[in-house]
Specification:
globular; about 10% strand; 3-stranded antiparallel beta sheet; mainly alpha
Length: about 375
């Protein structure tokens, strides 16, 4: 019995020593990072590091996306003389997914609300949402971060304010008796923001040291080398895809700021392409503009009429796509008539094999 207790005690001591060694290792590695922003380590940070490391698939996707997005971020952060490590904010905001959209209405890599995005010069309308544009949204984020730093003169407080707004940080400072250190005002911050800086520090750790934990980028999520061209006339992504020889899904992935696949024209817009296809685009630009132009960009009356009818037909639009929620007594024929489309089209758009539909289900109206 005594021998068993001794063995158990040795195991517990060993576990504690290993935990202490892990904490010391995380702390040392964070201190080694050549960063301007302070990266303190504590058990809260350690908890979030472990959560990231346990999500190996998520980490593999993040690393692959970082290979594409981080050079874009670094270039713009450098232009604004901001710390490179701010590139980890989109890791925790959107998991580096430009299509990320919160329930509150924030969107894009940096998760701007529409009002904030427009305040910092982003175009947001039916055809363009520059919150999803890696370059435009990063420019806006840099302007916002510089303003926050002017207010707080401390990067940890800036990061907190990016999450909960400068007003909440100022309230926390006042409630703490005027203290201006994140960990001093920690108890007075909103619950989500208390975790925000520790998660940011954890993200910095895992994105720098993933390889030491045998986590590698997911090759499925690799992006091509890219370049941009200027588009001044209305253009549909399908026109580009079909002439230059690129998958439409790939083109959408590289140009997420055009939710309806239409570049409006009328002023300078950017189109991102794989670098090896830029010359092809330039050489074929006239052909691209003329390809299926009447169908895709010149004559949009049917689509405009369909959107106009949604208000009286019970339809609704999400990211430029029209939907209809089936009501009791509805038939495919009646719904088709309501939207001035055919039953055959409804079936094709929704993958239906027969005419059977159920109340409460949603139908897509259009491609």
């Amino acid at each position: 019995m005594r021998r068993c207790l001794i063995i158990l005690l040795l195991v517990v001591v060993g576990v504690c020593m290993r935990a202490e060694n892990v904490d010391s290792l995380y702390k040392a590695r964070l201190q080694y990072l050549p960063y301007e922003i302070e990266m303190p380590y504590n058990p809260v940070v350690g908890t979030y590091i472990q959560r990231y490391l346990k999500s190996e698939q998520q980490m593999a996707r993040l690393l692959a996306r970082a290979d594409y997005y981080f050079p874009i971020f670094w270039n713009i952060l450098d232009k604004h003389n901001l710390p490179y490590e701010l590139c980890y904010l989109p890791v925790i905001e959107s998991a580096l997914n430009p299509m990320a959209h919160s329930s509150m209405g924030a969107a894009g890599l940096w998760q701007f609300m529409p009002s904030t995005g427009k305040l910092y010069g982003l175009e947001i309308n039916s055809l363009v949402d520059e919150r999803r544009d890696p370059i435009g949204s990063t420019e806006a984020a840099c302007a916002f971060l510089k303003r926050l730093y002017t207010d707080f003169q401390d990067w940890n407080l800036v990061i907190a304010a990016y999450n909960c707004g400068p007003g909440n940080v100022k309230k926390a400072i006042a409630r703490s008796g005027g203290k201006t250190d994140f960990w001093s005002i920690y108890p007075y911050l909103p619950n989500e923001t208390r975790c925000y800086l520790p998660i940011f520090i954890a993200a910095c750790y895992v994105m720098n040291y993933a390889d030491l934990h045998t986590i590698c980028p997911d090759t499925v999520w690799r992006y091509p080398m890219t370049d941009t061209v200027v588009v001044r006339e209305r253009l549909h992504l399908s026109q580009v895809a079909e002439i230059v020889g690129i998958g439409l899904d790939t083109l959408r992935m590289l140009n997420p700021q055009y939710p309806r696949d239409i570049i409006p024209g009328g002023k300078d817009y950017t189109l991102c392409l794989p670098a090896e296809l830029v010359t092809t685009y330039i050489e074929q630009e006239d052909t691209i503009r003329q390809h299926r132009a009447d169908e895709l960009v010149n004559n949009r009356r049917d689509e405009i009429e369909l959107l106009h009818k949604t208000g009286v037909s019970g339809g609704y639009s999400v990211n430029g796509v029209t939907y209809y929620k089936i009501k009791a007594g509805d038939t495919l024929g009646a719904i088709a008539k309501k939207f001035h489309v055919s039953v055959k089209q409804l079936k094709a758009w929704n993958g239906l094999k027969d005419d059977n539909i159920r109340a409460g289900k949603t139908l897509r109206i259009g491609k």
